[in-house]
Amino acid sequence: EAGETENLSFKMESETQYFKHPPGKRPNFQKLCVPSPFYNPWTVLVSDWMDNYGINQLTDSDKVFVIRNPSFLEEIQTAIQSRSLGLSGIKDKVLTSYANALVYVKLTACDRGVAHRNA
I need a surface site. Which of 36, 58, 71, 75 has the fewest CB within 10 A? Predict the structure, then answer.
């Protein structure tokens, strides 16, 4: 719920900032093919992902959540780092146990540039 509240707060701030500019000075997100420039539609992302793998769609009672189980996260990390194990076992476990979950990933830029929020 805290993530949803933060997401909604960011959306409202971003929209306010966006509409302060005159129409000619604002980016046209429709032309740029950006469906949701002001928020992260996590439920849409997870629903699309579940649809691609043939899993039942999310219901209203299902919440999207971030996996915080340290042992499972370590298992994912080990499988990714040692490619000899393969990711099929992890994928099956994720699809059955954590189908409506997100995994926190930290990215580090190797070169110049700054990634902005929701980029």
Answer: 71
The answer to whether 96 touches 72, Cβ cutoff 8 Å, is no
Amino acid at 104: Y
Is the pTM here over 0.90, yes or no?
A: no
Q: Label residue 1 exposed, middle or buried (CB < 10 Å: 0-12, 13-18, 19+).
A: exposed
Task: Provide the 8-state DSSP code for 62.
Answer: -
CA-to-CA distance for 23 and 44, rounded, in angstroms?
28
46 CB burial (10 A radius; 0-12, 13-18, 19+): buried
Q: For 69-87, how does the pLDDT look when each residue is reduced to its tens digit (9 = 90+)?
A: 888 888 888 877 776 555 6
Paired residues of 102 in beta bridges = 66
